[in-house]
Design a protein that fits this description.
By secondary structure, this protein is an alpha+beta fold. The chain has helices at residues 3-17, 24-38, 44-51, 62-71, 77-83, 97-130, 153-157, 217-234; strands spanning 143-145, 149-150, 170-172, 179-182, 203-206, 237-243, 250-258, 268-274, 276-278. Residues 84-97 and 126-140 have low confidence and may be disordered.
Amino acid sequence: MDLNRIEDLRNTIEKALGRKMQTPKDFDVLSDSIFEKTHQSISPTTLKRLWGYLQEPSIPRSSTLNLLAQYVGFDSWAAYCQEEKTPLQTTQTDTEQPEQRRHWRKTAIIGGALALLAVIAVSLLGIYHFGRASQTDTQKPYILKMGQRFSTPHEYLKLFGIIATDTLWGRPVPHYEKLLVWTPEYHNSHWHNYGDSAQMMPTITEHWEPDEYEASPELIATRNKDHYWNFKSINEVRITFMKGLVDSTYVFLGIYRMSLAQSDTTRCVWERIADQCDLTSLDYLEQLRN
């Protein structure tokens, strides 16, 4: 990992944002700006580690560097490294400085244009997705509310920066440990996923027992017992969209966690603990664990 280029990227980001990363508020502002421009999330904590604000040894993930490079107008971290010459590695003469200034001026103009296009795109995306809930709804952009519908999982997965090509049932949110975007199917033939549909599923009960073939009582008991102990130990929070609850769409139901009082080795009961999800900062979900 080229530390000089990472430092150069930090400087470029600070110039694009127009502020130095010196206080917790600065990192909150940068995290929000990254989401507004790229529609993908990097937590303030991750940014603090990258800037050395937190004294924790950490090697940035390639996905983080790719997203930061996209924030300043490049396709990827590799493209940034190929295009940009790191000032710390280049000896410049006085005759080269005007050219550098012209380069930064050009970068600023391009960055401003990209930012404007990003704002327009995000606004249109917000109108498309969030306008479905109600014509008179005054909700803030990027606030998911219970009952919102999506045609496909890809429509809501991309809100969390997830590009899925395989399993859609459960996808971890990038940069957030034990935070899952969950898509259970109402009355699934294996897991059943039952609850009160009239109340938009205040609880979702999972119980594994396949319908289409005979399974021994011992196998059923073992599978449900393992499932219970596994998720009790993981203690994850689930951002939940249910398939087939109302029609063929995917309905946002809210934020769920395992109910320790209602779950046992025969079933897992997930309870709704919030009916909205603020996409601009998912850090608060860490406080909702058991």
